[in-house]
Design goal:
Chain A has 148 residues and is mainly α. Chain A has helices spanning 2-18, 25-31, 36-47, 51-69, 74-80, 86-97, 101-107, 115-121. Classes of the chains: A mainly alpha (148), B alpha/beta (143).
Chain lengths: 148, 143
């Protein structure tokens, strides 16, 4: 159990580190040395959400950071954090945060705590319904593998 | 008035492996290593005088029943427990040193912030470790 958890944590760390890059479930599952289908089940059992949702929340958290702390356009922020479609980004952001990216930017100013603390504690956990239709991590080029 | 933080504890899954990592990889020094019966009081610390002892503790009896110890081990391995934050005088140099010593579980490469340059890694068991170089980022540094 510890060994499995440790490997799943290594895969989760890989998402936290490489959220801005195209990631598919195969690549992340490979970090844990687990088959993709088994990986998603195990990940959900240990961390309480699918790897797809974990990565979405990480990307949205990083986009919230960039919207607060920088002047980059919403479109630039969308691509900065690993989304490849502005529509997917805006929809996902709204589902998780409850407002649009530009609405969020207008209402929030920079937070003065270390980035690692922000990443650990401000990744959004809203009650947004889990979207099951997505079969990818959000990249058009990624192989279609069910993540849910 | 309290004058010092003397001992802080973290849970590890194996004391020998922890000692090897924290001393030979991370560069701390061994503090106490005392056995009393089956208990081993094992600490590491930042080299130099007067530092806080970091006690390396293993879940298990007599402090924990087996079910509790099992749960703690699972929590450690999934990264759910808190770790340590260290200060360095040169984050990028240390990053290269750690890589050369075989450290692979970095969670973040050295990154510049307004409060300094920091990096993240995990110990062999899943505990998070942050290392920060405080102060203004030098002009020649890159993100």
């Amino acid at each position: 159990m510890e060994d499995l958890n440790r490997r799943l944590l290594r895969a989760r760390d890989a998402m936290d580190r490489a959220y801005a890059e195209p990631l598919d479930v195969r690549a992340v599952a490979a970090v844990a040395h687990i088959s993709p289908a088994h990986f998603s089940r195990c990940f959900r059992a240990v961390f309480g959400e699918t790897p797809h949702r974990y990565l979405q929340r990480r990307r949205v958290e990083r986009s919230m950071f960039l919207l607060r702390e920088t002047d980059r356009s919403v479109t630039d922020v969308c691509f900065d954090v690993g989304f490849t479609s502005l529509g997917t980004f805006s929809r996902t952001f709204r589902e998780i945060v409850g407002e649009t990216p530009s609405g969020y930017r207008n209402g929030h100013r920079p937070i003065v705590v270390p980035t690692c603390v922000q990443m650990a504690n401000t990744r959004p956990r809203s009650a947004a319904p889990v979207v099951t239709r997505s079969s990818r991590f959000g990249e058009a080029s990624a192989e279609a593998v069910s993540l849910t | 008035m309290i004058t010092k933080l003397n001992v802080a504890s973290i849970y590890v899954l194996d004391k020998d492996e922890a000692l090897d990592f924290y001393v030979n990889k991370l560069g701390l020094e061994k503090g106490n290593d005392v056995r009393q019966g089956s208990y081993r009081w094992l600490t590491v610390r930042v080299p130099g005088e007067g530092g806080t002892e970091i006690s390396l503790e293993q879940p298990g009896p007599p402090l924990h029943d087996e079910a509790t110890a099992d749960r703690l081990r699972e929590l450690i391995a999934k990264g759910a427990l808190n770790g340590l934050v260290f200060i360095t005088d040169n984050a990028r140099e240390l990053y290269e040193t750690l890589k050369a010593r075989g450290v692979t579980d970095f969670t973040q490469e050295p990154t510049d912030h307004f409060y300094g340059t920091d990096m993240g890694l995990r110990d062999p068991f899943g505990n998070p470790i942050r290392i920060l170089q405080q102060g203004n980022v030098p002009q020649d540094a890159t993100a």
